[in-house]
């Protein structure tokens, strides 16, 4: 990778690790607030809500979330051009090796892996971790709660977020039924698309020769990319029982917007201005 330029240094630059749907809600808000953002993704993103995930640029070269474009770059030397075009650079960098070159003003770990995949407070003057797996004042400066409920998006100055329960938050009376996990290991062959209205027990995909059934009737809010090789038990689809939510499959969720607001609150309170 080539080093950063002097012009990059004097701008407020943020790194967001992860480009899934919740991360993308944060990225979109930071972009709209005027921050210069670089997204670091893994080599094979596994987003479910792909239409609102900047990480899809890893596969397609570009991705768009509510009118904002993310563009895949090979190294940080390409960031300047992308920023000048009013777009967001997406870099495949699972180990966050480019952090030492870019020297960001703040780093947000939004991978949502339920564990810390290597983020430390030494990576930036201000570090923020989303969800469980981080301890505020130890491996990051602040933690933002990601669990639905009364404490969603609460800023945690000391301690950890609520532990992962493995059960999605309730929507219209449904919790764990909303999420579909792979019944087998193999390659995804999708029969349904994001935004489709599906009926309970309808076959929405195959994992090799094993059918994937809709767990309830509703709108297919997200499904992992066709052709993705999944292990048994991996989350592969998400159904919203509220059919009227079909129109929102291409928009950032209320949860993501709420979390994004708390990230901006932390940045402003610490004097990290756009």
Describe the structure.
It is a single chain. The chain is an alpha/beta fold. The protein has 2 domains: 6-164 and 255-269, 3-Layer(aba) Sandwich (Rossmann fold); 176-241, RNA polymerase II/Efflux pump adaptor protein, barrel-sandwich hybrid domain (OB fold (Dihydrolipoamide Acetyltransferase, E2P), Beta Barrel). Helix content is 17%, strand content 28%. It contains 6 helices and 19 strands. The protein has helices spanning 6-9, 21-32, 57-60, 79-84, 99-102, 254-269; strands at residues 13-17, 36-41, 62-65, 68-73, 88-92, 106-109, 127-130, 135-136, 142-144, 155-156, 159-160, 179-181, 186-190, 197-198, 203-207, 210-213, 218-223, 229-230, 235-240. The strands form 4 sheets. The chain has a 9-stranded mixed sheet. It has a 4-stranded antiparallel sheet with strand order 12-19-17-14, with no helix packed on it. Strands 16-15-13-18 form a 4-stranded antiparallel sheet, with no helix packed on it. The longest helix is centred in the last third of the chain and has 16 residues, at 254-269. It starts with 5 loop residues before the first helix and ends in a 5-residue tail after the last helix. 43% of the residues are buried. The model has no long low-confidence stretch (mean pLDDT 93).
């Amino acid at each position: 990778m080539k080093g950063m330029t002097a012009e990059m240094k004097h701008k407020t630059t943020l790194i967001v690790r992860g480009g899934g749907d919740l991360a993308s809600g944060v990225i979109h808000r930071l972009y709209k607030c005027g921050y210069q953002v670089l997204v670091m993704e893994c080599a094979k993103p596994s987003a479910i809500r792909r239409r609102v995930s900047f990480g899809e640029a890893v596969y397609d070269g570009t991705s768009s979330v509510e009118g904002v474009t993310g563009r895949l770059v090979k190294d940080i030397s390409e960031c300047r051009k992308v920023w000048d075009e009013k777009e967001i650079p997406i870099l495949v960098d699972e180990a966050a090796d480019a952090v030492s070159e870019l020297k960001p003003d703040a780093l947000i770990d939004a991978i949502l892996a339920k564990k810390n995949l290597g983020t430390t407070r030494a990576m930036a003057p201000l570090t923020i971790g989303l969800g469980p797996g981080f301890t505020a004042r130890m491996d990051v400066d602040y933690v933002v709660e990601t669990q639905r409920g009364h404490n969603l998006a609460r800023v945690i100055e000391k301690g950890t977020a609520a532990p992962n329960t493995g059960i999605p938050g309730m929507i219209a009376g449904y919790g764990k039924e909303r999420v579909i996990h792979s019944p087998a290991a193999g390659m995804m062959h999708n029969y349904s698309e994001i935004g489709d209205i599906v009926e309970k027990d309808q076959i929405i995909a195959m994992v090799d020769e094993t059918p994937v059934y809709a767990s309830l009737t509703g709108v297919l809010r997200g499904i992992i990319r066709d052709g993705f090789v999944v292990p048994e038990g991996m989350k592969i689809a998400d159904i919203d029982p509220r059919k009227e939510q079909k129109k929102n499959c291409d928009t950032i969720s209320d949860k993501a917007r709420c979390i994004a607001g708390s990230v901006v609150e932390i940045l402003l309170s610490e004097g990290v201005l756009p």
